[in-house]
Amino acid sequence: MTIMPGLFAQNGHSPFRKNYARLGIQNIGKKLDATLSPGSNILKGNTGTTTGFVFEKGRIFYFIPASKAKRINAGLDWTILSITYNPSAKAWKDYIVANSSSYTTNDFEAKFVGSISTKIGPAISINPVQDLVIDLRGQASIGAYIIGPLYESTATGTDNAFYPYKEDVNASGIKKFTQYLSTTGIKPNVGATVRWRSVGLAVDYSPGKVKMNYTKRNNGVETTGTENVTLNSMQVKLNLTL
Question: Do residues 219 and 159 touch, judged by C-beta distance below 8 A?
Fold first, then answer.
């Protein structure tokens, strides 16, 4: 049987491989503003995070079978699982130093931003030459986030706090932990992967806002609210496609 040139890569595999895993780095949020309160910083998307990591696993569901696709294929790119973590301890340490008369290290816990999400959308794969493939994608990212830190202070007779979720002091079991993931949102995600055979480099950018339910306490008076928080992210990842 004769196979058309360019239909399959030189190693006998279709260049349009389906399953992928990615591991890399992420930057998310903005710098802290030392003139704002902890809660105001978070609600403005000032997370103070440093570079963190991202792990993803997914699959491209191609519309054209490998036996028929030539130089271009299209499909649905479903990043089934995306997990991210970005620490923010250093920025909040500097923030406390700049506001040493108002805050101490013991006032803050959970100094990080984490997320778990799934992403889905159309993708186009281009095979310009031999084993080189360029994947272009546009997805909707559906995620839940933990945006720290948790702030609580009773110094000098005050009772102030900010929790980036609606606190339920009576929560038990799994609900005691899932309440921390009450910040959710759907954001656009655009990305590209350049790979040679199974190994490549992927870049993704996801701008947009997430819906945060929060609890704050000022001088013992507790209130709850909801805010749309800007949370843009950029990721660069090693890509393994099988």
Answer: yes
Summarised one tens digit per residue, pLDDT across range 98-132 is: 998 888 899 999 999 999 999 999 999 999 998 99
For the residues 189-212, what does the mean pLDDT come to? 97
pLDDT in tens, 24-62: 999 999 999 999 999 999 999 999 999 999 999 999 999
- Give a three-class secondary structure readout of the chain: CCCCCCCCCCCCCCCCCCEEEEEEEEEECCCCCCCCCHHHHHHCCCCCCCCEEEEEEEEEEECCCCCCCCCEEEEEEEEEEEEEEEECHHHHHHHHHHCCCCCCHHHEECCEEEEEEEEEEEEEEEEEECCEEEEEEEEEEEEEEEECCEEEECHHHCCEEEECCCCCCCCCCCHHHHHHHCEEEEEEEEEEEEEECCEEEEEEEECCEEEEEEEEEECCEEEEEEEEEECCEEEEEEEEEC
